[in-house]
Amino acid sequence: MVSFESDYINGAHPKVLNRLVQTNESSQSGYGTDEFCESAKAKIRKAIGDEKADVEFLVGGTQTNSVIISTMLSDDEGVIAATTGHINVHEAGAIEFTGHKVIELGQKNGKLVPEDLKKYLEFFYSDESHDHMVFPGMVYISHPTEYGTLYSKNELKSISQICRKYKMSLFIDGARLGYGLMSRKTDVTLEDVAKYSDVFYIGGTKVGALCGEAVVFTKNNKPKHFVTSIKKRGALLAKGRLLGVQFDELFTDNLYFEISKHGIDMAEKMKKMFVDRNYEFFIDSPTNQQFVILNEEQFERIGQEIKFSVWEKLDGGRTVVRFATSWSTTEQDLKALEKVI
Amino acid sequence: MVSFESDYINGAHPKVLNRLVQTNESSQSGYGTDEFCESAKAKIRKAIGDEKADVEFLVGGTQTNSVIISTMLSDDEGVIAATTGHINVHEAGAIEFTGHKVIELGQKNGKLVPEDLKKYLEFFYSDESHDHMVFPGMVYISHPTEYGTLYSKNELKSISQICRKYKMSLFIDGARLGYGLMSRKTDVTLEDVAKYSDVFYIGGTKVGALCGEAVVFTKNNKPKHFVTSIKKRGALLAKGRLLGVQFDELFTDNLYFEISKHGIDMAEKMKKMFVDRNYEFFIDSPTNQQFVILNEEQFERIGQEIKFSVWEKLDGGRTVVRFATSWSTTEQDLKALEKVI
Amino acid sequence: MVSFESDYINGAHPKVLNRLVQTNESSQSGYGTDEFCESAKAKIRKAIGDEKADVEFLVGGTQTNSVIISTMLSDDEGVIAATTGHINVHEAGAIEFTGHKVIELGQKNGKLVPEDLKKYLEFFYSDESHDHMVFPGMVYISHPTEYGTLYSKNELKSISQICRKYKMSLFIDGARLGYGLMSRKTDVTLEDVAKYSDVFYIGGTKVGALCGEAVVFTKNNKPKHFVTSIKKRGALLAKGRLLGVQFDELFTDNLYFEISKHGIDMAEKMKKMFVDRNYEFFIDSPTNQQFVILNEEQFERIGQEIKFSVWEKLDGGRTVVRFATSWSTTEQDLKALEKVI
Amino acid sequence: MVSFESDYINGAHPKVLNRLVQTNESSQSGYGTDEFCESAKAKIRKAIGDEKADVEFLVGGTQTNSVIISTMLSDDEGVIAATTGHINVHEAGAIEFTGHKVIELGQKNGKLVPEDLKKYLEFFYSDESHDHMVFPGMVYISHPTEYGTLYSKNELKSISQICRKYKMSLFIDGARLGYGLMSRKTDVTLEDVAKYSDVFYIGGTKVGALCGEAVVFTKNNKPKHFVTSIKKRGALLAKGRLLGVQFDELFTDNLYFEISKHGIDMAEKMKKMFVDRNYEFFIDSPTNQQFVILNEEQFERIGQEIKFSVWEKLDGGRTVVRFATSWSTTEQDLKALEKVI
Fold first, then answer.
1. ipTM of the prediction
2. Residues C236 and C230: beta-carbon distance below 8 Å
3. Tens digits of residue pLDDT in B322-333
4. Which residues of chain D have pLDDT under 50?
5. Nearest to C37 by CA among C50, C23, C49
6. In this complex, is the C-beta atom of C125 within 8 Å of any C-beta atom belonging to chain A?
7. pTM above 0.95, yes or no
8. I need a surface site. Which of A94, A303, C123, D80 has the fewest CB within 10 A?
9. Is residue D54 less than 8 Å (CB to CB) from chain A?
10. Given pLDDT bands bounded at 50, 70 and 90, which one contains residue B254?
11. How many other CB atoms are there within 10 angstroms of residue D145's CB atom?
């Protein structure tokens, strides 16, 4: 059964896997002190155009969010996120587990609205009893968002300026960053992401790796004894090479961007297929996740041939479902889908 | 300067203080094992009409919320509260500090709406990926609420039934419980509070004591080794007698209810003063906290003679302010206020 | 039954209680912003001879240890304590509850040995894998210790120097500080405590107050937004005046030192009574806690007339028990004890 | 340079890696719901001879320790471990991060002594104030230990019986379990491990996998909503297949045991080489880690050709170093070592 269930349904991109095979017998020190990690870090620094950035590798997305947020916030602080933000909904309370509040703000198309952020901060600091409240210490945004949408460069810039003004960090969750950067409808570059954020990560799990996220600290702001804090959270991989090798390959010959572009090309074709057949979209997504509204008959029929994710039940028996493409989606997959929609 | 700033501006009710003086030289064991605590617990059990209830004393409101919620939730669970709930806004993240999420639901007049609660739970359990979400393990409501409003018996009953159905505890924050029970517009009794909740507390700090809240577990559900968990949270008072003596006196000869009634009588008089002068109210509160909207001139003028709390800025230079009465409010205080409004 | 069970068996010193009565009707703002707290802070600053020290009040000992340690350590750090340290044994894991390890070092007479501390630190920093270990960020000592013993000025100085060298804070738990300072066998003054430590507290609960500990930060090192962090831990008292009034009285006309001296005088008399009758001591304590070894017959006989604490079972049916004096111990109490030993 | 630095210096066993290649293009659901995980779980159940055991996969050792311990302890409980236990020394406080104390007991050859455990528990429950202490809720042992030593079946049985008596769980950290089971000097089988423990894990990272540990709950005691708790700790792998595929291969045709045996064979040969040359051993280890004492000249000389781990500095310029073999150690590696020792 062909699957558009998510962008982590397959193993690794063949080149990544091949590199693991080739390097398998090399003896390396553990915990990220191997030569592959070093090489990968250098390549990532180059890709973002910042030789001084600190790069660290972690295993997965929730882990990365939890480690970054909890090591960068101070005791009195929480993190601001959109109500739909992954850390607020689908991480089982991983941020709260570390003792910090997720401060919910409203969202529009899955995005935090700069004006809302500004209002919240003005309200907060005008409140006489704000020292009985959680101080806003960081803003979390995902790019692409959980709904596949993207911030414009102007939006990023605005949010970044607000963060500077209120001395908060801006953290960009880039679990699907590649698909965002390769979208046909974005003016945001990797350099922009590095410039406007204080810390962000380049997602590997959903873009060709078996696992792994590359965290980038861009403002000389890596937490003190960061390795110790990673270890303390059970997030330090013994064979750090597993992450180093994969990212080294992903950042060789533009592989990361090429396979992201492939995912986008597949998404655009898929989108057109739905558009041509007058399917209704739940949201207009310029990236690899497409949210389509199916009626009962469609839901039943398509579900017999194709795997997808169920997002939300609407009235009238309609359902929002997600079809995700990725680096591994094939023309054949699309044809199978086309046949049934 | 006369103060209506809050209901904790004065020391203790004279009878409570006097009892502390009288018992001062009695030697007692520490940590709540003294005879005053025993006596107070028995009186509270009698007052709620449940000889089997477990009663424990803690020092303050935030501490009580944090201890109760974090010891009654299991690892995967969070607590549902109204956006305006004290634990969600003004406790500096005390619940999250213990590793648990506060799950925000909308509010109406500071109250959780049974129907909203039901919808949320239906949505939660219908979501295929809800095991990536925080399980709702408890519902937190405050009675009176942060806006002085009260749940009706029917509302309490509905919420309680929903909790039973979804196997969640119902926790009633009674920091101002006395003022709720003595309100002229309530059909909820202390017995009802005990019956519909799984755990609640009877606030002492705001109702005549120097400090102290009496927690009541009504369903044979006191957490195992609760004293150890209290100690672990730095919440176990060495001289537990300080709490025992005060609650013993508060539950002697109906003192708790009488002084609560006095607070309500003062509030009703004060309310009438504002009504008679056509002041606008932010919300209709039947308890000891009255939220009045002042224009700039009023704000300035009254503020020179009377202390009050600033709640929220509205447009047009208007401000929501809170005037709180309590067991310690005097006719003289009201006269001073009357002169200036 | 006469009790030497602990130094927190009675209420408050009459002067302290009287002051609570006198100030009871004064209206004050909450959360420690009242005038009594301000006055008490000024008096404490004067007593330690440091006008710039930051003083804050908390309710009890375990709470104070937990708040101080968890707000002053960074994420990668733990606190070093003697195996017998209160935080390591009798606080139900309150430090670990905040996410930090108590690093146990051996003890001698209940005290941390400077040489042991030094060795541990040299070992730690020589270990190649110490970034997989908890960094030592603070040293915790109690003075007097849990066994009533005292550090000499030289010992304090040595430990302080080691802390400076390794960039660790020195935290002195002064739950019974008064009895230490008034001991007949100490060369340590309150000024020394302030000078050699980075933070310490002056215990009120065991020295004349109903509750309350005064935390002193002596190196311009009060954590940022400390009130928020206190609130987050459920440790912020609404009626902060309860602490302010008590400490204001304790630091008026040397009351704190006088009543501590009384406790010591009583302890010395008691000690002599045991010495004269050839009782064996478990440890030589120069403060208000005396640890005596009783045989079965003595244990039985004395226990029928006098309350004491059981410390440890030794072989041969012998038991280590503690007799504690305090500001509230009377000559009459001593006579009752003398009759039966 | 030939390395005996650790047992995680190489990638994966070729068969494991090959299996990853073969399964790479198969589409699978995420988060451990894939068919490889199912198959691997079934094979592990069969290997331990318990069809009802619950098996779950996690990524690494510290993570596994932290997840298991923190989800199985109740709020008032801590975990007992030897002073040398990995969770007590080299996990950067990962257990304390979750709010639980590691209760240190002395060790002999890296092992917890049943008699010491018994004494501690008798002492604990005889202490009148034990409700101010951390309740012992679990015993943690590693098998093999951090010093390569092994518990005998009798020792395991004794510890298990003590745990049953005091209602504690017994958790066996099997990060190197294969090398323990294949040791020439053990009477402990995999079935014994399952029988005597309440939960244990089969280490993959150090025995042929790129990463991964298989947790086995043997007493119908998997924590409720365990997936949620894993997610909450940032430990849920999106591509759970990565773990499933590897363990499925490791438990096909006895691979796990065969490659463990190879590691042991290599260790025994290596050990003989040192014995034959009269090197002094720090401890007598029957598994894949050998601890040898080198003098300055040896340390220098061998270090130029061979990588090893530095364990501890002794007096007289001597150093304890660790030489670890594994599934990936070759005869050629041994020859290189032999040449230089």
1. 0.97
2. yes
3. 999 999 999 999
4. none
5. C23
6. no
7. yes
8. C123
9. no
10. very high
11. 26
